[in-house]
Amino acid sequence: MTRRGSICVVGTVRNAVEFIDRYVDSVPVALRSRVRHVVADGGSVDGTSERLREHAAGMPHLVVLDSIEQTMVQGLNRAVDAAPSTHVVVLNADDSFEPGGLEALVDVVETSHPPGLVIGGLRVLDEHGATFRIQRTRRMRPGDILLDRDYPWNPACMAYARSLHDVVGRYDEREALFDLAFLLRIARVTRPVLSEEIVGCFNMQPDSLTVRRLRAGELDGMIADLFSRFEETLPWPTRVHLSVRRGIRSLRHRMRRRL
């Protein structure tokens, strides 16, 4: 019998009790018989773990892993390992799905031959909760990521096959930008199916790690370092092609400045 695709929402939390009530409702009631939600608590001390278990007692689709003090990457890998599905969607505690967004991913994945990766649109909210941008991924090939930053800025807008970890490895604790490093690796082995639906919502909370790195002026340097190390692993013809593309772009930029 051909196996159908299935989705599990996974995440890791620590000391995020103010977000938990909304977070556990991320999977709509109509989907809870088909979509599980696995959450790894990373040793919270603010009541997060207790609140999660209160919800889990009345929500059969919600699975809370034992509270263990560990890094975000360790917790995420643990949640992915525990997901009873062919595909996972990573959802951070302070992010969310757009209305109908998770349903759009389920519609693509719940087939007899689901794609390895499906990506929808991403609503980016500023620190005031207003829409800053609707971000869309167009191709997400390695060169597109390196030159155009063409990748999902937040994992809430995408579902990927757990089997990809068998090919490219787990989330790497040695990488500060472990989620982007993972996208670079899977871009070499799969091509996304793109959905026009706006699926995820990326909340740029003032105290979020991404915003703190932006304000400190660290993020661009971290991305540049990761990209440089990744490019060195690419085949020589690919690196030459990227160099040519950069040269053409630089020439066009200089010509536009002269006009």
List the uncertain runs: none
Number of strands: 9
* Share in helix: 25-40%
- Measured distance between first and last alpha carbons: 63 Å
Q: How would you describe the shape?
A: globular
Q: Structural class, judged by helices and strands?
A: alpha/beta
Main β-sheet, in a few words?
9 strands, mixed
What's the pLDDT, averaged over the residues? 93
Helix/strand order: EHEHEHEEHEEHEHHEHHH
Q: Strand percentage, roughly?
A: 15-25%
Q: What's the gyration radius in Å?
A: 19 Å
Oligomer: single chain
Q: Helix count?
A: 10
List keywords for this structure.
259 residues, alpha/beta, 9-stranded mixed beta sheet, 10 helices, 9 strands, globular
